[in-house]
Amino acid sequence: MTAPAATPDRQRRSAPANPILALWRSTVGKKIVMATTGLIWAGFLVTHMAGNLLAFAGATKINEYSHFLHEAIEILWPARIVLAVAIVLHVTAAYQLTRVSSAARPIGYGQQEPQVSTTAARTIRWGGVLIFLFIVLHLLHFTFGTIHPMFNEGDPYGNLVVGLRVKWVAALYLVMMVVLGLHLYHGTWSAFRTLGVTPPSGHPLKRRIAGGFAIALWLGFTMVPLGVLLGIIR
Ligand code: HEM
What we know:
Blueprint: H1 9-13, H2 19-25, H3 27-53, H4 59-71, H5 73-103, H6 119-122, H7 124-143, H8 156-165, H9 167-194, H10 204-229
Helix pairs in contact: 2-3, 3-5, 3-9, 3-10, 7-9, 9-10
The structure holds protoporphyrin IX containing FE.
């Protein structure tokens, strides 16, 4: 007589009614949420960077692009809602995973951390906190104009020039773009591993792909404050 197939402990303990809730409660589920929401923001950043670079083509180009987006409510608001939900989920999952990993060491999933510790990997959490604070200040600066010296709604070009002509503000943007680059480097690489695109290895080629993406975004974003400081955008 064959013995009944053993049910794994984990399966028996958690046979939840709601699979989405079960996924969210699991460590792997939170990692998947972090990866997906991070990639949503990475996608937004690619388009945002491209839009910002229109500043080099002059005031008319970037202002027209901005007006187009602001008038396309059917694109703008769904995108804003997706980004807002994504950041709430990303931050919540990051906070909860940090608590789990500091409460229980060593943890199984932690073994999938890269064998090679990089600056980006070591700074991912603090970088995330700084980027979150940056986003809040950035919205007050260029979207709501609350902390902008001469905000003119509908004139992002003028707002960019006036806002980034202040040297310490431009310096803050430049430093934050380095923090963003490091976060993107480690974040995109981890996201692809979590989503199964790459196996959990420290293979240099995969790091190079993540590195190339991070450098492209860092460079693209950095060029605008630099362009204002150098008087190319004025
Ligand atoms: C040097 C870097 C950056 C510059 C010069 C810049 C510039 C701007 C400007 C001018 C706007 C207002 C656009 C408009 O009203 O049409 C804006 C909006 C925004 N930026 Fe940036 N940005 C930079 C980096 C970032 C980064 C790194 C993030 C996110 C991590 C970000 C997130 C946003 C968001 C969420 C908005 C609001 C979009 C909306 O209207 O819904 N930006 N940015």
